[in-house]
Specification:
single chain; alpha+beta; 4-stranded mixed beta sheet
């Protein structure tokens, strides 16, 4: 299951960040998921719960936000939502899309550390962005 490997990767990255901050607990993790990324949010949430067992993330919540797919046409410059399944032809000039602008993201956007376990140099439950990759 693809979602399990994604969940394990997210847990690993948040654990590394927790170690570097001295945090021993996580309240929630926010994740942007592009609609064209091929990840099923409900399956990912289930896998996340399993992957968190026995880690600093145990009991934390995964909050996901869907990022719509969008494309840009080189000939006319129009940007449009691709939808799902994606429509890669420009709605104005019908040229084939030359650039996928958004929709393939899989990005941790925020981690909220547990208030009573935050590092001494960081305030309680302060959000922290720890990863931005597409």
């Amino acid at each position: 299951m693809h979602e399990m490997s994604v969940a394990l990767s997210v847990v690993d990255q948040v654990e590394q960040a927790a170690r570097s901050r001295g945090a021993r607990g996580v309240q929630h993790v926010h994740l942007d998921i592009g609609e064209l990324a091929g990840v099923v949010s409900d399956s990912l949430r289930f896998c996340f719960g399993l992957a968190c067992a026995g880690t600093v993330l145990e009991g934390s919540e995964l909050v996901t936000r869907s990022v719509p797919g969008s494309a840009r046409c080189a000939p006319c410059g129009r940007t449009w939502d691709t939808g799902m399944p994606p429509d890669m032809l420009c709605p104005d000039c019908r040229a084939a899309a030359t650039e996928l602008v958004a929709g393939r993201e899989l990005r941790i956007t925020e981690v909220r550390w547990a208030a009573d376990t935050a590092a001494p140099d960081s305030p309680g439950a302060t959000p922290a962005t720890i990863l931005e990759e597409s």
